[in-house]
Amino acid sequence: MIDTIIYDMGNVLIEWNPEKFLHLIETDEARIAKLRTAIFTSGYWPRQDTGELDADKAYHMSLALLDDSYQESLRQIYYHWYEYADVFTKMQDYAQELKKQGYKLFVLSNTAASYYDLAKKGYLPIDEILDGKILSYEVEMVKPDVAIYQYLLDKYGLEAQNCVFLDDIKGNIEAAQSLGMQGIQVISENQALADLKVLLSKYGRLSEQ
């Protein structure tokens, strides 16, 4: 029986679309290309998720690849990207329903300290009802390394066969499945909600009543 729902953050609870964010912040394609290279191609952004860099260090390392005219745009990406993102409200509202039905709820995400900014500013209302969370930068492990999934299971005493994991990346789903979890790849919010409801109707807490 599935009694535990585990959510990724980006593109599951809130949109993660750096191309959209870059194009909302800048309009000139040449400048966008330079920002993309300095932030993402450089590898500085993902090193926040591993805990190697905090946002301030990554920001200044990216800025060193640019001239000062990029300061504000760079700051918007590093410190305010979520203000340009759509919140997956239906997914988070449904989590509230699942909590009332007795499901345990967790977040397992490749993310940085900005997670707490999102929660504090109301972009992740689900955070208030979570039974726990594993954030990659805090444990210095990232998906799809199975070690981070096992860490979640061990820390909270979970049985893999009782869990379903939602993520937008196929490889991350496959890693969860390799440990015995159910997995739902999130292509869209509506699709993922429909798939989750079908799965829980068959194997969830209320299916045996």
From TrEMBL:
Pfam families xrefs: Hydrolase
Coiled coil: none
Organism field: Enterococcus cecorum
Name assigned to this protein: HAD family hydrolase
PANTHER family membership: ALPHA-D-GLUCOSE 1-PHOSPHATE PHOSPHATASE, FLAVIN MONONUCLEOTIDE HYDROLASE 1, CHLOROPLATIC
Gene3D superfamilies assigned to the protein according to its UniProt record, in alphabetical order: HAD superfamily/HAD-like (3.40.50.1000), Putative phosphatase, domain 2 (1.10.150.240)
